[in-house]
Design a protein that fits this description.
This protein is 32% helix and 16% strand. By secondary structure, the chain is α+β, with helices and mostly antiparallel strands.
Length: 185
């Protein structure tokens, strides 16, 4: 089964609920987005146990900088509050480079220019801080998964897949199981 597809219950690595015939958990190699996490849980009642892509912003790489987790998002009023207490003034739904829905958030230039923490927030010399958000359900699913994958419980659960991957790799490479001597097998 290609990485990213939802299990239908016949794939290895899917844990079945008692008597349901449907998996409760699936262990894909990796998920590409919060959309997949949210959809699998909402529509199929399947929990994806897999690593999610990390936040690749420079703010996430710098422990002193303000990454997305430092901002408070009020989805109902369509506003974001920065770590210094300033409220965003621009919230516009749009489409990202891959054609998926996103939300563009921007803060006021005057608020950002005068901020004593500007260097920890943005590298722009004249512009204000901007954020790109996923829709609410996807954003929340992705943030929860990023937090969950740092826990020892997640690492222990995902180790099941690592064990299976090791066995499959050994079969394929060490024992030559990719080549069969029999036609039709």
């Amino acid at each position: 089964m290609p990485s990213g597809e939802i299990a239908n219950g016949n794939e290895p690595g899917a844990e079945h609920g008692k008597g349901s015939g449907k998996p409760q958990m699936h262990f894909p190699r990796r998920t590409g987005s919060g959309e997949m996490l949210a959809t699998s849980q909402r529509e199929y009642n399947v929990e994806l146990v897999c690593p999610v892509p990390p936040d690749t912003s420079w703010q996430a790489a710098d422990e002193h900088a303000f990454d997305l987790t430092h901002f408070s998002i009020d989805w109902a009023s369509c506003t974001v509050v920065c770590p210094q207490g300033k409220c965003s003034h621009y919230w516009t739904p749009g489409t990202g480079p891959s054609g998926k829905p996103t939300i563009q958030v921007q803060f006021r230039h005057a608020d950002c220019r005068a901020c004593p923490m500007r260097a920890e927030c943005t590298r722009s010399k004249v512009g204000a801080r901007e954020l790109t958000l996923h829709p609410q359900t996807e954003h929340e699913a992705l943030q929860a998964a990023r937090h969950r994958q740092q826990t020892p419980e997640f690492k222990a659960r995902y180790a099941v897949r690592a064990g299976v991957e090791g066995t499959m790799s050994q079969s394929a490479y060490a024992l030559g199981m990719r080549r069969s001597r029999y036609i039709g097998v």
